């Protein structure tokens, strides 16, 4: 009798297959659970603006061995995007995990994942200089339909956590530059104030009241050396402190012998005045200047004894109009050049009339000439008017030979002249070209230095004498 084999105690083949199927299913679920656990950690290290969708393989597909080298480019791109201006990079496909994954897979993923980068909205940073655009990452490999859906279901989108990008901050500096945003304007330094305008010559008008009035005030004008009374004057030492005595001889030019004697025999300090009626006036004036004499012109004027005493055809008369008298004046002044001024001959009536003397003195001022008041009478207003009008003037103190032409009379007058000079510092005498007058003046001038006096031309005493009023006799007619 054949005994039947005992029944097998091991599991049945169908049960083994079922167990293997459950093990495979369990492995697949474990792998999926490991990826779900690892995905948030990897997403923390990924760039804020991009999302990496994991590639979930099917259970039956073998896992490729060369997948790990594709993960470093994703890390570099994340660093470049973070250092850039928060611009999201194109999506990249990470390497699919191996199918048979153990419990150590999440730890390895955590060790390989880069450290988490803080969100850019935590602290505002100054606008960074935009870097040139990087080349786009290679296009991801084709995925199955379930991968995007699983990634979208398992990983939340990071867009709500990232602040919107302000375009003006990340844009490059093209030409023309874009309008700055509010953040850029707040960070930019304040504009420098415009430079203050330079001070101009009109500034004192706003800060100094009355500047225009001060500028309009008259200022003292120095004497013009080009005026005829200065240009034609003879040199004199103005530093000489001795009393000055000026002597003037009038009526020269009619008698040649007497005129030549006065020019050559008298010292240069004596001033010579020539009549405008002389036929050789230019020759006499030139000869006198060559010998160092200062020159005046006789100005004929109406005396109180007119018409018995006639001063000549070109004399200034009170019966004429101002225009007529000015015409006669200019005729006299235009006869010659090289003189410093004029001295009246006769003129006791004309010089006493302020109405007639005023236009004459104004014309002399316009011509730049000096006026010597002969003081033929005590009624003369010529010196006072000259001072008021601004005409340089001198005043006769003593006539030498009008009353009597003798040695004794002339010497006595010269002594009086010296006394006036010592008391007042300046003195003027007038004489006629008599031979006795020329001879006494020549002798008197020799010892003048020993007596402490100096002989000066008439221009050296102009405007130095005080006004006085003393009666004088009328000068003799020619």
Key descriptive features of the protein:
single chain; 478 residues; alpha/beta; TIM Barrel; 16 helices; disordered C terminus
Describe the structure in your own words:
With 478 residues, this protein is of the alpha/beta class. Among the domains are: 32-51 and 70-114, no CATH class; 228-461, TIM Barrel (Alpha-Beta Barrel), CATH 3.20.20.370. The chain has helices at residues 13-45, 71-83, 105-112, 146-154, 167-170, 182-187, 203-207, 211-216, 228-231, 256-265, 281-290, 322-333, 354-367, 382-389, 407-424, 435-446; strands spanning 244-252, 271-274, 295-301, 341-346, 370-373, 393-395, 398-399, 426-431, 454-455. Helix 1 (13-45) runs parallel beside helix 3 (105-112) and helix 13 packs across helix 14 (382-389). The longest helix has 33 residues, at 13-45. The protein starts with 12 loop residues before the first helix and ends in a 23-residue tail after the last strand.
The biggest beta sheet is recorded as: 9 strands, parallel
CATH topology of the domain at 228-461: TIM Barrel
Can you tell me the CATH architecture of the domain at 228-461? Alpha-Beta Barrel
Proportion in helices: 25-40%
**Can you tell me the residue ranges where pLDDT is under 50 for at least 5 consecutive residues?**
39-115, 132-138, 140-157, 160-164, 168-174, 199-211, 213-221, 470-478
Short overview:
The protein has 478 residues and is α/β, with parallel strands linked by helices. The protein is 36% helix and 9% strand.
SSE diagram, text form:
Elements: H1 13-45, H2 71-83, H3 105-112, H4 146-154, H5 167-170, H6 182-187, H7 203-207, H8 211-216, H9 228-231, E1 244-252, H10 256-265, E2 271-274, H11 281-290, E3 295-301, H12 322-333, E4 341-346, H13 354-367, E5 370-373, H14 382-389, E6 393-395, E7 398-399, H15 407-424, E8 426-431, H16 435-446, E9 454-455
Parallel strand pairs: 1-2, 1-8, 1-9, 2-3, 3-4, 4-5, 5-6, 7-8
């Amino acid at each position: 009798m054949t005994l039947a084999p005992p029944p097998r105690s091991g599991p049945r083949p169908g049960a083994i297959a079922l167990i293997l199927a459950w093990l495979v299913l369990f492995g697949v679920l474990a792998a999926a659970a490991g990826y779900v656990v690892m995905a948030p950690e990897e997403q923390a290290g990924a760039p804020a603006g991009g999302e990496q969708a994991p590639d979930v393989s099917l259970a039956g597909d073998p896992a490729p061995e060369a997948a790990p080298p594709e993960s470093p480019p994703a890390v570099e791109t994340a660093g470049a995007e973070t250092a850039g201006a928060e611009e999201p990079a194109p999506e990249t496909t990470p390497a699919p995990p191996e199918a048979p994954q153990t419990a150590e897979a999440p730890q390895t993923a955590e060790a390989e994942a880069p450290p988490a980068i803080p969100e850019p909205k935590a602290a505002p940073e100054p606008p960074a200089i935009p870097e040139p655009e990087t080349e786009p990452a290679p296009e991801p490999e084709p995925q199955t339909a379930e991968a995007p859906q699983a990634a979208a279901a398992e990983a939340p989108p990071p867009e709500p956590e990232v602040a919107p990008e302000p375009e003006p901050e990340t844009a490059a500096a093209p030409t023309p530059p874009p309008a700055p945003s509010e953040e850029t304007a707040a960070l930019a330094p304040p504009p420098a104030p415009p430079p203050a305008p330079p001070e101009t010559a009109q500034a004192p008008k706003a800060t100094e009241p009355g500047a225009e009035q001060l500028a309009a005030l008259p200022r003292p004008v120095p004497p013009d050396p080009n005026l005829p009374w200065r240009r034609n004057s003879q040199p004199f030492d103005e530093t000489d402190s001795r009393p000055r005595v000026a002597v003037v001889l009038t009526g020269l030019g009619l008698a040649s012998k007497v005129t030549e004697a006065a020019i050559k025999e008298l010292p240069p300090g004596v001033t010579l005045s020539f009549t405008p009626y002389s036929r050789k006036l230019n020759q006499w004036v030139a000869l006198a200047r060559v010998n160092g004499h200062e020159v005046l012109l006789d100005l004929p004027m109406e005396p109180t004894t007119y018409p018995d005493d006639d001063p000549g055809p070109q004399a200034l008369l009170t019966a004429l109009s101002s225009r007529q008298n000015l015409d006669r004046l200019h005729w006299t002044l235009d006869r010659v050049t090289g003189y410093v001024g004029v001295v009246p001959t006769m003129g006791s009536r004309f010089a006493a009339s302020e109405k007639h003397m005023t236009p004459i003195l104004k014309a002399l001022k316009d011509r730049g000439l000096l006026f010597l008041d002969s003081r033929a009478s005590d009624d003369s207003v010529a010196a006072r008017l000259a001072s008021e009008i601004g005409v340089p003037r001198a005043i006769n103190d003593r006539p030498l030979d009008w009353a009597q032409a003798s040695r004794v009379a002339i010497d006595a007058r010269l002594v009086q002249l010296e006394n006036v000079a010592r008391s007042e510092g300046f003195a003027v005498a007038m004489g006629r070209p008599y031979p006795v007058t020329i001879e006494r003046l020549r002798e008197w001038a020799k010892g003048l230095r020993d007596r402490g006096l100096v002989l000066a031309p008439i221009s050296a005493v102009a405007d130095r004498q005080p006004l006085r009023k003393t009666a004088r006799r009328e000068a003799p007619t020619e």
